[in-house]
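Deliverable D2.4 — example input (structure tokens):
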């Protein structure tokens, strides 16, 4: 039964990750004239460019770290209720988006999604509440990946590397820096284990049928999904999604294997990030697309437009055809005929 729990959690992680990437990259493009199609493409590229920057990534990691410290030191029922309400609201929006991008269908999907959210709020302490929580967690992942859109592989890699360091720090190191006296039996694991034990809805939970749960943090699905969404959003790079999803499967499987063998919680991103970044970079390098994939279609398009603008603004030399520049016409004088 333990193997069944691991397999189920792995399937939930892969399925949610793929769904979030696909829905986040699903852009509805209407059929227009040639000029209209060009404008739609330029708008999409512009939106991709302005989605978020390196500074936003740094602020995101700092914000997540602050939230962990807040949950670690502040034991407040009011804070827990606020987080639960935000979780349900985000999940309801995400579940409606997961069903369809059509506004009418999404509006209809809000009704059952809201019912699931209310049911979880009422029954969250019941033994079977993990089923409702996992359904809502799928919606949170879909919404988050749809919002966090990377304009390039370079920026998504920057996000993933910082997230890896963040994960390793809070699992292995933070317990030595922020002691609280609650969990110090495993060196360095105090902060993250204490936050996990707070029973907040920030994870997928699958019972192992031994009065415990196999868990996976939502960030381990959402943050790698930023790269997957970028690969699917670009038509020329969608073929790289298969290596991405395979590498994600390998990374998550390895993280679960190490966690089971060591009987300690592991930072899943420590295994996932090298796998997905390494796989995509290697495949792109062998295909000769690494430069375009790394900089992103937005930056490449912007550089091309700048080059074309310089050519258009370059002063053109007027060719003057004046009589002085031309060869003088032949002069026919009188000829003596003998």
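Example output (designed residues):
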């Amino acid at each position: 039964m333990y193997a069944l729990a691991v397999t189920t959690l792995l399937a939930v992680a892969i399925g949610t990750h793929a769904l979030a990437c696909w829905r986040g990259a699903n852009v509805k493009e209407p059929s227009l004239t040639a000029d209209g199609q060009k404008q739609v493409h330029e708008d999409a590229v512009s939106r991709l460019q302005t989605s978020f920057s390196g500074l936003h990534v740094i602020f995101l990691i700092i914000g997540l770290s602050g939230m962990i410290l807040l949950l670690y030191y502040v034991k407040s029922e009011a804070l827990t209720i606020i987080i639960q309400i935000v979780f349900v609201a985000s999940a309801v929006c995400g579940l409606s988006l997961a069903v369809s991008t059509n506004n009418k269908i999404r509006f209809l999907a809000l009704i059952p999604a809201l019912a699931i959210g209310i049911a979880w709020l009422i029954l969250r302490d019941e033994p079977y509440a993990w089923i409702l929580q996992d359904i809502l967690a799928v919606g949170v992942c879909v919404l988050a990946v749809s919002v966090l859109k990377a304009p390039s592989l370079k920026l998504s890699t920057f996000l993933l590397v910082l997230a890896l360091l963040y994960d390793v720090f809070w699992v292995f190191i933070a317990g030595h820096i922020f002691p609280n006296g609650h969990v110090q039996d495993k060196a360095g694991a105090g902060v993250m284990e204490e936050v996990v034990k707070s029973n907040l809805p920030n994870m997928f939970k699958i019972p192992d049928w031994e009065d415990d749960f196999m868990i996976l943090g939502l960030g381990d699905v959402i943050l790698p999904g930023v790269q997957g969404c970028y690969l699917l959003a670009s038509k020329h790079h969608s073929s790289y999604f298969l290596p991405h999803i395979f590498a994600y499967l390998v990374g998550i499987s390895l993280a679960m294997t190490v966690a089971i063998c060591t009987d300690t919680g592991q930072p899943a991103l420590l295994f996932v990030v090298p796998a997905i970044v390494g796989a995509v970079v290697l495949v792109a390098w062998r295909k000769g697309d690494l430069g375009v994939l790394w900089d992103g279609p937005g930056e490449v398009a912007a550089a091309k437009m700048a080059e074309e603008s310089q050519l258009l603004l370059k002063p053109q030399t007027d060719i003057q055809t004046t009589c002085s520049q031309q060869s003088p016409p032949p002069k026919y004088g009188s000829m003596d005929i003998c």
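Residues 27-50, 181-189, 300-306, 332-338 have pLDDT under 50 and may be disordered.
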